[in-house]
Amino acid sequence: EQIELQGRHTVAVRRLLGWYADGADVDLSRDGNRLKGLFMAVWLGRADSDRLNALTSSIMAPLADACADAARDASVGCVVVTGAGRGFCAGGDLKEGGADKAVVPANSDVGSRNEQSFIRLRGFMESSRLLHEMPKPTIAMVNGPVAGAGIGLAGACDLRFAGRSASFLTAFDRIGAGGDFGSTWFWTKILGTGVARELFLLGEKLSAEEAFAKGIYTRLFDDEALHDATMAAARRLADGPRMGYRYMKANLNNAEDWAFEAALDAEALNMGLSTSATAMIWREKKKAENPDG
Questions:
Q1: Residue 54: which of 143, 149, 125, 123 has the closest Cα?
Q2: 46 bridge partner residues
Q3: How far is CA 97 from CA 28, 47, 91, 127, in A?
Q4: Distance (Å, rounded) from C-alpha 171 to C-alpha 128?
Q5: Among residues 49, 30, 28, which one has the least CA distance to residue 39?
Q6: pTM (whole model) above 0.85
Q7: How far is CA 186 from CA 126, 180, 220, 254, in A?
Q8: What is the pLDDT of residues 17-76, one digit of tens each?
Q9: Which of 101, 100, 89 is nearest to 128 (CA)?
Q10: Among residues 53, 43, 60, which one has the least CA distance to residue 126?
Q11: What is the three-state SS of the chain?
């Protein structure tokens, strides 16, 4: 997918119909009506493509905003996150990170430099929380190398579709860092503590095939097939039972932390809520189709 980069760094957002008209995506950004099969695609992009979409504040802030918009937009049934060019995301931009101009000398209004840096980074990391918790399916389309904070964004998504050029690297050991964007939490939950510790402590780069074998990637495709396969899945999910997916995802997220009995209680409650609402919707539909019946 090609996007036109406006300025040095950008986050491009497009609302797309869940079907294609003459093979072309349909841009619905100016239409606020709920349409069947609508999903949102978010591209991370940098004009300097050799940086593989390394995260700067000018990417991280609009990315968090885009995720918040997608989470609350009832017309969007699925969200796809990917990178422009030949990579998904190489993690944080170390050049920018070493000289954050938004952090000012300590004072009583904004606190210490460390406090300011924490607040800024935590705000940027909302994108990971939103991708994980929003009540709709999310897909990471991993179209090339992913490392550092990028593995947090990928891990935040419900599904990870990868091309064969999609290497995987934690990379935090290379800069003496502990991890961010939820990376240590997500990959411990997804892979188990043993495999997660192997990935983070040894810091070995995995090929797409190796990452797929470990369960990091959900599906693996030839690079030229990745885009169409991902968008087909996004259209299917966006056109699917949105209420069912909403409660399903709530149950799956609950299962990550709740005790078994509490998870059973929530499943029973959500099953009743979803099926009763489905029955009500079905009755109203039949009444509209046959008002005299």
A1: 149
A2: 9
A3: 36, 18, 11, 18
A4: 18
A5: 28
A6: no
A7: 14, 10, 20, 14
A8: 432 222 222 222 322 333 345 778 887 776 666 677 888 888 888 889 889 988 998 888
A9: 89
A10: 60
A11: CCCCCCCCEEEEEEEECCCCECCECCECCCCCCCCCCCEEEEEEEECCHHHCCCECHHHHHHHHHHHHHHHHCCCCCCEEEEECCCCCECCECHHHHCCCCCCCCCECCCECHHHHHHHHHHHHCHHHHHHHHCCCCEEEEECCCEECHHHHHHHHCCEEEEECCCCEECCHHHHCCCCCCCHHHHHHHHHCHHHHHHHHHHCCCECHHHHHHCCCCCEEECHHHHHHHHHHHHHHHHCCCHHHHHHHHHHHHHHHHCCHHHHHHHHHHHHHHHHHHHHHHHHHHHHHHCCCC
C-alpha span between 210 and 216 (Å, rounded) = 9
Q: Quick one: tokens of 138? A: 């999310």
Count of positions (residues) in the chain: 293
Token pair belonging to 165: 């050029």
Measure the CA–CA gap between 56 and 95, rounded to whole angstroms. 9
